[in-house]
């Protein structure tokens, strides 16, 4: 996440629920390795044990100035969007499996 400056100033684009324990989140961020050009990051979570989600309408209103916080402990990954602390993040989840994919910027 250091390469993307922890998504500070990024924008949440979409949240897709796949099943009760799996979902995808897409966001746009600046990439330090590409002269700070914008790219899309897509996260896919499965085996989610806890989540604080928001509606599509509220998704774009989340202030990403503090970026993303990610903590990996034992077999648990916690991720919060819009705050530097998991518990105060307006969008957050606790999962066992996290995949990410980088793709070219698109609206």
Strand content: over 45%
Radius of gyration based on Cα positions: 13 Å
Largest sheet: 4 strands, antiparallel
Q: By helix and strand content, what is the structural category?
A: mainly beta
Average pLDDT figure: 89
Assembly status? single chain
Succession of helices and strands = EEEEHEEEE
User: Given the structure, what is the number of helices?
Assistant: 1
Number of domains: 1
Q: Strand order within the widest sheet?
A: 1-2-3-8
Distance between the termini: 22 Å
Gross geometry? globular
- Total strand segments: 8
Report the uncertain regions: none
Helix content: under 10%
Question: How does this structure look, described?
Answer:
The protein is mainly beta. It has one domain (2-104). 4% of the residues lie in helices and 53% in strands. The strands form 2 sheets. It has a 4-stranded antiparallel sheet with strand order 1-2-3-8, with no helix packed on it. Strands 4-7-6-5 form a 4-stranded antiparallel sheet, with no helix packed on it. Strand 2 (22-31) and strand 3 (37-46) form a beta hairpin. The longest helix is centred in the middle third of the chain and has 4 residues, at 56-59.
Which helices and strands occur, and which strands form pairs?
Blueprint: E1 11-19, E2 22-31, E3 37-46, E4 50-52, H1 56-59, E5 68-73, E6 76-81, E7 91-95, E8 97-104
Antiparallel strand pairs: 1-2, 2-3, 3-8, 4-7, 5-6, 6-7
């Amino acid at each position: 996440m250091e390469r993307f400056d922890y998504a500070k100033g990024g924008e949440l684009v979409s949240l897709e629920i796949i099943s009760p324990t799996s979902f995808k989140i897409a966001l746009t961020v600046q990439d330090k390795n590409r002269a700070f050009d914008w790219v899309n990051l897509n996260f896919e979570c499965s085996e989610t044990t806890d989540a604080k989600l928001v509606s599509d309408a509220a998704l774009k209103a989340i202030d990403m100035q503090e970026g993303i916080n990610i903590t990996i402990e034992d077999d648990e990954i916690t991720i919060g969007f819009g705050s530097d602390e998991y518990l105060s993040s307006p969008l957050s989840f606790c999962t066992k499996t996290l995949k990410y994919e980088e793709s070219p910027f698109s609206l």
